[in-house]
Design a protein that fits this description.
It is a single chain. The two termini are 22 Å apart. The relative contact order is 0.23. The radius of gyration is 12 Å and the shape is globular. The protein is an alpha/beta fold. It has 3 helices and 3 strands. Helix 2 packs parallel to helix 3.
Length: 76
C-alpha cells in the first residue's frame, strides 16, 4: 500500500515539528514548509501530496491565499 504524503505548512518550527512527529507516528510521509511560497514551489514541482495542512497566519501570505492558489493549479 502506498503511503499518503502530507504537506505541513507552519512557520513556527515547534508547532510544525509536533504535527510532523505525530503524523509520522500515524504512518504518514510528510513534507515540511515554513512559508506559503515554499509550499507552492513544492507543489508546483511535485504532484505526490495527498493533503496539505495550512497555517492561516504566515509572514508571507495567508493559508487561505495558498489554498486558493493550490485550487487554481487544479488540485482539490
Amino acid at each position: 500500500m502506498m503511503q499518503k504524503k502530507v504537506l505541513v505548512m507552519e512557520d513556527e518550527e515547534s508547532i510544525r515539528a509536533f504535527v510532523v512527529v505525530n503524523l509520522r507516528r500515524s504512518g504518514y510521509e510528510t513534507v515540511e514548509c515554513g512559508t506559503g511560497q515554499e509550499a507552492l514551489d513544492y507543489l508546483h514541482a511535485n504532484s505526490d501530496v495527498s493533503i496539505a495542512l495550512l497555517d492561516v497566519m504566515l509572514p508571507d501570505m495567508s493559508g487561505f491565499d495558498v489554498c486558493s492558489r493550490i485550487r487554481g493549479m487544479g488540485s482539490k
